[in-house]
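Final report, Chapter 2: Outcomes

The project's central promise was a pipeline that accepts a single protein chain and returns its three-dimensional structure in a standardized token representation, suitable for archiving and comparison. That pipeline is now operational. To close this chapter, we reproduce one record exactly as it appears in the project archive, with the input sequence first and the structure output second.
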Amino acid sequence: MDTLDGSREGSVDTGGPTREFLTLLMRAILASRFFVGPEDSKHLSLDSIGLNRGTYVSIGKMIAICIVHGGVGPYVFSARLLCQLTGEPAPPVDVMEIDDEELRSQILKIQQASTILEVHAAIASAASNLALLGSLTVIRTMSDRDEVLESALKFYLDKRLHVPLQQLRQGLECLGVLQAAVGSTALRRLFSGGPPAPLTAEQVMNMFAVNYSVRGSSRRSEEERAVGYWRDWLIDVEGRNGQRVPGETVKRRLFLNS
């Protein structure tokens, strides 16, 4: 920054601007074409152009930097994606995890078919997609049908994403984030389970114990007034942030306990 005399003046970032930038960056990453699924359960999508460019590595590095330098996590990784990244056993495959609406509808029809004739009809309508998944075969029994469904789901939800996941892991190893997440429950919460609930005024109040002067002294009176202003300020901030404002009963109890 230039001052009036033309000299340069350094800027000071006490954490707020950095955290805001990293929060916006994380939102942009999760809203990009590299992630699909519900807002509270994102999983990786396949983007061949990004794969060739190594974009998944860059995404992993950006997420790692957001976590280390801002304490900002994605929070919304699906249980499957988190397991794929940490190497833990993934949950059973579920047709509802398929983000492609046409394929999901076709797989559901095969799954819901109750006779071999219905299965054959459903397989025929899904033949092109099943062929791309390497799961098109002759169906003679309902067990064959189940095997086709299992192989198609596993390929779509896991095997076809093998290389993108490798790239993402490589990026998340930046600053040791992925390695730390494997053995840390607290760090894993930054990836999955949703953002933590914001602190309430009452929770902040309960974090502190006030050591008052002797009751009846002039210092005690000033201390009680100062603590009252502080508690009112916390309640006001909570209300302005759109959080639940503690009722008058809670407020009175806190003051009476002082």
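Archive annotation: The two ends are 48 Å apart (CA to CA).
This record, like all others produced under the grant, will remain available to the consortium after the project formally closes.
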